[in-house]
Design a protein that fits this description.
Elements lengths: L22 H17 L7 H9 L3 H15 L7 H11 L8 H14 L3 H12 L13 H10 L3 H15 L1 H8 L3 H12 L3 H7 L5 H4 L3 E3 L7 E3 L1 H7 L12 E3 L14 H12 L5 E6 L5 H12 L2 E5 L6 H14 L5 E5 L3 H4 L6 H5 L5 H11 L4 E5 L7 H4 L4 E5 L4 H12 L6 H11 L6 H14 L6 H20 L18 E2 L3 H17 L11 E7 L5 H12 L3 E4 L1 H4 L6 H16 L2 E4 L15 H16 L3 E6 L7 H5 L3 E6 L3 H11 L7 H9 L5 H10 L10 H13 L13
Parallel strand pairs: 4-7, 4-8, 5-6, 6-7, 10-13, 10-14, 11-12, 12-13
Antiparallel strand pairs: 1-2, 3-5, 9-14
């Protein structure tokens, strides 16, 4: 809540009045004098009221009032001789031991008690010379005018805000209104503001604009039951602190990377720049996972327009404060020559996910406030969020354009590392190896900035290059696990990989050619028929371990594409409708990135719809079929259970490739590849062939098994026997479970 006390204006306004105070202060002073003049004939002579009156008077006027009251009361012999003597001396310009205010108070109290209040008021009014009209209308003050523009306030609403603002910055006015009883509050405010009591009652009701926008708060436990929002108080006082924007905005800068270095299509970049460069107050939404360069892109985009670009300074207190602060800021910006970037905007935009505390405080109109704000903004704004899940659809519809950001591609990560390390005293080899390591991890832009800071420190320790690179890899692994929860999924096959050993229903070269030709067609647009290029859909099926996923990795590596591996756990969800959204997002991401999309073990969710028991089991297969047909890239699905797939799904694959166990030639080739230092006799090879069949996965398991064994125990006999045992694990045990005939 508001910090009570004289935040900006001294208790005794008169001390600097008309000398050092700004024009806006003098306007506020004149309104305070106007309130006092209006209250004089209506208010009792209480100590707090008279303290307010005296705060607006200089010493000469105080002495004149004392002298006038002395001459008025002395003949009536209503006041003690001591008081009259002090009043006479003070009125004549002499010093007195008593407090002058106490002497004047004593005479005014007697006047009121004896029914002479009217005459006393005439003396005060005549000698105080309080203004009858403000020296300038509040509507002409810059900060108040911006407030009117931001919220569309009428004159009554503005004058109530002015009154509450003066209460918040003047201790003596606050002390006075704090003494008013509830029954007196509306009357007192009405006298000061000139707004009728019934209208004031409407202005502070729970559904009023001032309460809905959180400009005015009901604070029953504070000194005065009505308060102006802290952000509004500071905003209106901003003229005392320099520019109105200093508290809420800071220059955004041009960003660390050029505009064309971001993973955003050129047509999207051009459209954003064109919209932001125009004369309309457009709203651009950048969303997607953290660390993908949204903020840097916004800065680069703003700089490319040639306009002034500011970043909004968020409050750490609450989402309500941020929304109020932003409304004030954007209300003050009426020029389209300024662009505002609002980072981490979820706390402002997700009006559908209010905290329980916000609801209990009566903030039920957050959604309406957000939408009104978007409708009334008069300058271009770039909003940045990590997720749009909590943002209402009615809010999303108000954005002019949006761009989704996904994980940075390996090539971009490598380029960012080169840029970050360019000026450091490191060898080209270290920079090259660091860039290669970056391309192999799921990293954020912040990880690269942190890498530069770490290497700047390490460069001064005279470390050898191998140790530096180990540190680089350690930093990248830590960032990858911290942000993604796991290390990068392996995308490359080993250098000894040989696809010719596989036993496929179609030659592997034909599959590789189909993928390479399709990608070239997409990139060059060289489709001879002139028709729009559709997608290439490939189904790999067969028993486990036959090399389906590994071949997909090899194909992606050969054609120079990243392999985006998705499994059922990445798609399925316990919540109805989420799986369908995940499927749509998965295909959209692969379409935009140009990655080869691999869905591993697709039978986990693409099962036959005729066997479905729930409606969502059908809808997710329907969604997959729709997206699959619209997808123009390369889709590879793998399954160990072809029979469980939906028939309609199977029909949509142009290439269906069965993976079978290895031929003898393939088995012997893999023996030489995995165990090049061992010599396998013909008898051992015959024994191995007789006990098969084998799959590439058997060799990978055995090879990993012997990694921790002593060399003396690794013999040809041991390898062959272990392969045979591994093969047996894949064969049915021959026993049945349950009832027999």
């Amino acid at each position: 809540m508001r910090r009570h006390g004289p935040l900006f204006i001294q208790d005794n306004i008169n001390e600097t009045r008309l000398r050092t105070r700004s024009r806006s202060d003098r306007v506020l002073d004149s309104y305070l004098e106007l309130y006092i003049r209006r209250l004089l004939p209506e208010h009792r002579f209480t100590s707090t009221f008279l303290a307010l009156v005296y705060s607006a008077l200089d010493e000469n006027r105080m002495r004149a009032i004392a002298e006038k009251l002395y001459h008025f009361l002395a003949p009536k012999q209503l006041v003690s001789a001591e008081v009259l003597e002090s009043a006479e001396r003070y009125g004549c310009g002499l010093e007195i031991d008593d407090d002058p205010e106490e002497i004047i108070n004593a005479m005014l109290y007697v006047s009121e008690a004896k029914g002479l209040q009217g005459e006393a008021i005439e003396i005060l009014e005549g000698l105080s010379n309080f203004v009858r009209e403000p020296i300038e209308r509040v509507e002409k003050m810059e900060s108040f005018s911006s407030l009117v523009n931001a919220y569309g306030l009428d004159s009554d609403e503005l004058h109530l805000i002015l009154f509450l603002f003066l209460v918040s910055i003047n201790e003596k006015l606050l002390s006075l209104v704090s003494e008013w009883k509830t029954s007196e509050m509306l009357r007192g405010m009405s006298i000061c503001t000139g707004v009728a009591q019934g209208r004031l009652r409407a202005l502070i009701s729970s559904n009023s604009k001032l309460r809905t926008y959180n400009l005015v708060e009901i604070t029953p436990h504070q000194r005065f039951i009505l308060e102006l929002n802290d952000e509004v108080v500071e905003y209106l006082a901003a003229s005392e602190m320099g520019s109105l924007y200093e508290r809420f905005l800071r220059p955004a800068g041009s960003g660390a990377y050029p505009l064309d270095s971001f993973p955003v299509r050129r047509d999207q970049q051009e459209l954003c720049r064109t919209l932001l460069s125009g004369s309309r107050p457009v709203q651009i939404l950048l969303y997607g996972r953290e660390g993908t360069g949204k903020t840097e892109f916004a800065r680069a985009l703003g700089a490319a327009t040639g306009k002034k670009v500011y970043s909004f300074i968020r409050s750490e207190d609450s989402r309500r404060d941020n929304l109020t602060r932003l409304s004030l800021t954007l209300g003050a910006l009426s020029s389209t020559d300024t662009i505002v970037i609002i980072d981490e905007a979820e706390s402002i935009l997700d009006g559908g996910k209010l905290w329980f505390g916000d609801f209990m405080m009566g903030n039920k109109d957050q959604k309406a406030r957000i939408n009104i704000l978007l409708d009334q903004v008069r300058c271009p704004v770039i909003w940045i969020v990590n997720s749009i899940a909590g943002i209402q659809s009615s809010t999303l519809r108000r954005f002019t354009f949006s761009i989704e950001f996904r994980a940075l591609k390996p090539q971009i990560l490598a380029e960012r590392v080169w840029t970050a390390l360019e000026t450091l005293p490191l060898s080209e080899d270290v920079k090259q190896r660091a860039a290669e390591l970056a391309s192999q991890r799921e990293l954020t832009g912040a990880a690269i900035a942190n890498l530069r800071a770490a290497l700047e420190e390490l460069a001064g320790h005279q470390l050898d290059e191998d140790r530096l690179i180990r540190y680089v890899d350690t930093l990248f692994i830590a960032n990858s696990e911290l942000v993604g929860g796991k290390q990068r999924v392996r995308e490359r096959t080993g250098t000894t990989y040989n696809m010719d050993v596989l036993n496929l229903s179609q030659p592997p070269d034909r599959i590789l050619y189909a993928v390479a030709h399709h990608i070239e067609t997409l990139q060059t647009g060289s489709n001879v028929s002139g028709r729009q290029v559709g997608g290439l859909r490939i189904l790999f099926y067969g028993m486990p371990g036959t090399g389906k996923t590994e071949l997909a990795r090899h194909i992606a590596e050969r054609v120079g594409c990243k392999l985006d591996i998705r499994r059922a756990s990445d798609i399925l969800s316990p919540y109805v409708g989420v799986a369908e959204k995940n499927i749509a997002a998965m295909f959209n991401e692969a379409e935009d990135s140009g990655d080869i999309l691999l869905i591993d073990e697709a039978d986990a969710f693409l099962y036959d719809r005729s066997r479905a028991h729930r409606s969502w089991e059908i809808t997710q297969v329907d969604e997959f079929l729709t997206r699959m047909e619209e997808f123009r890239g390369v889709l590879i699905c793998t399954t160990n259970l072809l029979g469980s797939l939906d028939r309609a799904v199977i029909r949509r694959f142009q290439l269906k490739v069965e993976f079978q166990p290895l031929h003898r030639s393939g088995t012997e080739e893999l023996l030489r590849t995995y165990f090049p230092d061992l010599n396998f006799s013909a008898a051992l090879l015959d024994s191995l062939a007789a006990k098969g069949p084998y799959v590439p996965g058997d060799f990978a398991v055995v090879h990993s098994m012997i990694a921790a064994m002593p060399d003396a125990d690794i013999t040809p006999d041991f390898i062959v026997q272990t392969l045979i045992e591994e093969s047996r694990h894949r064969k049915p045990a021959g026993t049945s479970i349950g009832f027999t005939a």
